[in-house]
Amino acid sequence: DSAVPPDRLGDYLRAFENLLTEHHLSGLPYGHFGDGCVHIRLDFTLDADPGRAAFRRFLTEAADLVAAHGGSLSGEHGDGRARSELLTRMYSAAALRVMAEVKAIFDPAGVLNPGIVTAPRPVDADLRGVGSAGALAEFGREVQRCTGVGTCRADRTDVGGVMCPSYLATRDEKDSTRGRSRVLQELVDGRLVQGWRSPEVRDSLDLCLSCKACAAECPTGVDMATYKSQVLDEAWRGRFRPPSHYALGWLPTWARVAARTPRLANAVLGSPLAGPGKRLAGVDPRRDLPPLAGQSFRAWFTARPRPPDGEPVLLWVDTFTDLFTPQVGRAAVKVLERAGYAVRIPDRPQCCGLTWISTGQREHARKILRRSISDLAGAMSTGTPVVGLEPSCVGVLRGDVADLLDADAARTGAAVLTLAELLTGAGHALPDLTGVRAVAQPHCHHHAVMGWDTDARLLREAGAQITRVGGCCGLAGNFGAERGHHDVSVAIAEHALLPAVRRDPGAVVLTDGFSCRTQLRQLGHRDGIHLAELLAAQPL
Ligand code: SF4
Ligand code: SF4
Questions:
Q1: Pocket test for ligand 1, best of 142, 143, 144, 147 (most atoms within 8 A of CB)
Q2: ipTM of the assembly?
């Protein structure tokens, strides 16, 4: 936070860069250069020497440097414990003595801000490092990323931002990315918050939707969805978990069992048995569980006549497309075949394991992902492109695999494409969408991991008129269905999605995510469609 007269900024920055080099440090200066004010973030190992000594040495020389350029150690923030000891570099002993005398008149007992400005504590006296061992050490490095500036408290939904939907719904600091980071930092410190299962940790993470928006939008890359998954894993490993972890966390497994007799399963879900069932499963009574399709996508695909020849493409069929919305898969096949592809599907059912990840059952998620990635690796080794339809699954393959499995698996997962990426990348002719007016709700994982710009470009080039909705739909997989989350889930949907669709009752609502479509149907009484369905419905 140094500042120098603006006409000396160039000299100062050059000298500062030399100082960084001498101390084997690197960082990117930023700030308000018109006012001569400079910020920079530098990493020191503060747990122990030599990191602490290096910190002190650098800070002292940096103070001398800014003073030599006629500047101030603190351009726009306070001196605090971080700089007060170094004020001797800027002020004469006489000036500091006068400051101390003035302070003593108003605060003779020295109770106001002790250790700061007058009678300062050494700059390295109150450093707090991560200082933990085991699982907490790595976790601690991650959660210290938050610098507390508070971008996560800003409402950027009108420009397509998503972070942080829970805070925008409750306006409570504890439900912001920053509030959660603070609690997790205290968990790592261990003095105020103790243990993965502490009530403070549980309360701060309870309303996190695991939407991943912070991973994309927080300037320092705080990734609360991953931290929440890790915390739940540590907190519940080897214990009896909350009912929703078994019911919703294992939903793909239960859905596959129920899909053997879909009519019977749907009848049970619509019967008086559903109420007690939801109670047992930790599901909010106001939530309806989506019905299973009469025929799965895989059953339809394998029963169809031999597909036309063409360039091979592997369609990665997720559980939700397969069992709940096979019409999305059928539309994708039509679009891909029209583009000249010969569509294949994996030999066995696939899953990305997201419901296990978000409920902190990471070992099981790894098992599922290893299996899926090995199936994909076979296809990719022959150069066959792989395309996924459910954005949250593509997001796991492109993002979480790197966190959960090894580098080879991460490379395989990273190559999975969205439908828009495949179609625009290969330069295929697109259907004419002139006259189509669509309200588009990008899935929050699509926004955070893959980015939605390719979809926007495809739609624009095809002639569609798009209103892009920011924010999260509020359902976010298991979150909105869990008991205790319904009101916040509704408030989030009311923040951007529902007002946007109400404003344009005649528009197509484009929602690639199964969660978003479910939320829209249940709360907005409108049916959203997948990009594949929009494209398949138009002639080339
Ligand atoms: S979580 Fe990210 S955006 Fe929020 S205060 Fe911390 S660094 Fe800033
Ligand atoms: S994952 Fe989403 S809800 Fe959770 S802290 Fe990040 S932005 Fe907020």
A1: 147
A2: 0.95
Q: Which ligand is nearest to the CA of 154?
A: 1
**Could you identify the residue written with the tokens 């709940």?**
324
Question: Which CATH number characterizes residue 451's domain?
Answer: 3.40.50
Q: How many CB atoms lie within 10 A of CB 88?
A: 14
The Cα angle at residue 269 between residues 265 and 272, in degrees rounded to 5: 130
Amino acid at 400: D
| Atom 2 (ligand 2) nearest CA | 211
Condensed to tens digits (0 to 9), the pLDDT of residues 231-281 reads: 999 999 999 999 999 999 999 999 999 999 999 999 998 898 999 999 999
245-267 in b/e form (b: 16+ CB < 10 A) is: bbbbbbbbbbbbebbeebeebbe
- Select from 176, 222, 226 the residue to mutate for testing ligand 1; criterion: most ligand atoms less than 8 Å from CB: 222
User: What whole-number distance in Å separates Cα of residue 447 and Cα of residue 160?
Assistant: 9
What is the CATH classification number for the domain harbouring 203? Answer: 1.10.1060
Q: Which residue bears the tokens 């200066």? A: 29
Q: Are residues 79 and 158 in the same domain?
A: no
Residue nearest to atom 5 of ligand 2 (CA): 177
Q: Which pLDDT tens digit goes with each residue over 179-227?
A: 999 999 999 888 899 999 999 999 999 999 999 999 999 999 999 999 9
CA distance 516 to 528: 8
Number of domains present in the structure of the chain: 3
Q: Are 298 and 259 in contact (CB under 8 A)?
A: no
Tell me the pLDDT tens digit for each residue of 374-400.
Answer: 999 988 888 899 999 999 999 999 999
Q: Which H or E run contains 492? A: helix 486-495
- Does residue 177 sit in helix, strand or coil? helix
349 vs 405: CA distance, rounded Å: 20
- Which residues constitute the domain of residue 446? 430-536
Ligand 2 pocket test: pick from 208, 210, 447 the residue with the most ligand atoms within 8 Å of its Cβ: 208
Q: Which residues line ligand 2 (CB under 6 A)?
A: 163-166, 177, 180, 208-214, 224-225
Q: Which residues, in sequence order, are CB contacts of 463 under 8 Å at separation 6+?
A: 432, 433, 434, 435, 436
Measured in Å, residue 390 CA sits from the centre of ligand 1 at 29
Type and span of the H or E element at 516? helix 514-519
Ligand 1 atom nearest the C-alpha of 181 is 1
Q: Model confidence at 136, in pLDDT bands (50, 70, 90)? A: confident
CA of residue 109 to ligand 2 center, whole Å: 44
Please state, in angstroms and rounded to a whole number, the distance separating the CA atoms of residues 358 and 372: 18
300 Cα to the center of ligand 1, angstroms: 47
Strand runs labelled E in 372-427: 386-388, 417-418
163 shares its domain with 217: yes
Residue 528 lies in a domain: yes
Any ligand 1 atom below 6 A from CB of 258? no
